[in-house]
Design brief:
The complex is a heterodimer of chains A (247) and B (371).
Chain A (H helix, E strand, L loop, with lengths): L4 E10 L2 E11 L4 E6 L5 H8 L7 E6 L2 E2 L5 H8 L2 E4 L11 H11 L5 H14 L15 H12 L6 E5 L7 H18 L2 E5 L3 H7 L2 E6 L4 E6 L1 H4 L5 H8 L4
Parallel strand pairs in A: 3-8, 3-9, 6-7, 7-8
Antiparallel strand pairs in A: 1-2, 1-4, 4-5, 9-10
Chain B lengths: L1 E4 L4 E10 L9 H8 L7 E12 L1 H17 L2 E5 L3 H12 L14 H34 L7 H11 L4 H23 L8 H39 L2 H7 L4 H38 L5 H11 L2 H27 L5 H32 L3
Parallel strand pairs in B: 2-3, 3-4
Antiparallel strand pairs in B: 1-2
The chains are: A alpha/beta (247), B alpha/beta (371).
Chain lengths: 247, 371
Amino acid sequence: MTAQIEVRGLTMAYGASVVQRDLSFTIERGQIFVIMGDSGCGKSTLMRHMIGLNAPAAGDVYYDGEAYWEQDGDRREALGHKFGVLYQSAALFSSMTIEENVSLPLIEHAGLSRSASRDVASLKLALVGLSGFEEHYPAEVSGGMRKRAGLARAMALDPDILFFDEPSAGLDPLSSRRLDDLIRELRDSAGTTIVLVTHELPSIFELGDDAVFLDAERKTMIARGEPNALKQSSDAKVRAFLNRDRL
Amino acid sequence: MSVSRGADAVLRVQLSGDWTLKQGLPAAEEIVGELASQDQPVSRLVVDGTDLESWGSGLLTYVHGLEARARDEGISVSLDGIPEGARRLLALASAVPAHVTPHREMDDDLSARVGAIALQLWTTFGEALDFIGDTALAFFAALRGRARFRGQDVMHAIEASGIGALGIVALINFLIGAVLAFVGAVQLQQFGATIYVADLVAIGMTRELAALMTGIVMAGRSGASFAAVLGTMTVNEEIDALQTMGLEPTEFLVLPRVLAASLMLPALVAYADLFGLAGGMFVGVSLLNLGARSFMGQLLSALAVRHVVIGLAKAAAFGVVVSMTGCFYGLRCGRSAAAVGEATTKAVVMGIVLVVVVDALATVLLHVVNL
């Protein structure tokens, strides 16, 4: 059986400067997969390559065995409906209410009527604990609530895969814990595959089934495996990172 | 989906088939009607999902909606054969009680709305006066060498608002000069006074139109750009960062732009004068057959220094007005992408309006003092 996501021989570059080279790993269905590494190592760039925002310099990303970057525009868009993305700053559209933000993909891609989309959006907002905030604008709610609203929008179309870019960045420990619980609950109940870009140790150990560690200096992945097991990694940097030691 | 009534006032809703979003959402009216029915009260609602083939948000939304209605009617709900995952998500959806937004009192009365707009205008007017005062203070501080801003910001603004506008200013003023000559000639020909087209172009362009047109171009280019830049800086908390560093936005951001615009606009207008006159001369010589030498002679005799100076002075005033309008709306921008757009629009519209108003005032004043 093919893995749900496979990154094969991926090299990422901005112009002539290589960010990461030769990345290869697989992500199984229903896994919570963590992409970690020090700041500037290209974690978010890797996510951008996986969700179709940046084209790879070499290699490809396979979804159920289908090479994403070999497809034409229409097929890529169809593949894109399989995943939802929660951006670091939530990226809610500031001129729309929270409910309208969640409804937008429901109307445009699922073809729901306005009233049906409103019902589904309310459900999604209830799932993330934001029932009653439908008519608020993003600027009127707190950062943690914006993140959760962004999550409601990311899962609007019942995606198979959810990508999270630094979900706990800027959140207090309680909100961050709550978001972690929510992420795991989504995986456990809906079977959604989760790809998590983060350097928050508590979230990494709490959630990660599998992980890849990118290094900014060597410009490639230097460890792969279950986060708790990586604490005893043979690589000094990975050990120091996960145990919060000094190098 | 089928609905059946069982013993003991139990309503059973049997769900089958695909319940994903692709199938759309069925209407819940029938069941809601049953739940609220007075003749045959329902005490318990059973949602049976034993025959479900696949499920997604469609199922969750539907069942969540039924649960909410049942709760309102005081009816207990039990889920039968609903897949484990869906059951957990439904529990999650009900975990946090709905936030009740305090109802916002909206007075929709006409007088209330007019009043609200008037108050808003009054506030804006007050803020504008504050802003003008702050900028003036910053300017005097700069004269004493006490204002904190970076010279390179002035140079950058000069480059962006001055040099970048050379092409469009030349084109627009050449065309306006040509149009002026053409329209004037049609009238003056009737009196055999076509040569006075040169006077019309000389005075019209240098005293009025070059400054006015260039001011309007400036409002569209630089006024918009200032508002968008300062607006985005507001959104990004850069303005807050400046203030906490002890740098006044009026000194650090507004002053360089106002200085640059008020220096550059007269220079641009001097340049625009040349193109305006050239446009008029082009029409005079090529279409009206006035002869280059006689046109030029007539033009130079009409071209009194005071007309040029008045045009340039107005240009400096327009520069101040346009750049301050742009900065004003940029600094009081809200904290969203839409607010930046709104600020930019207001800056351009208000910039153009103020340019024309200042021009009109200047014309009246100069008429009174016979200049």
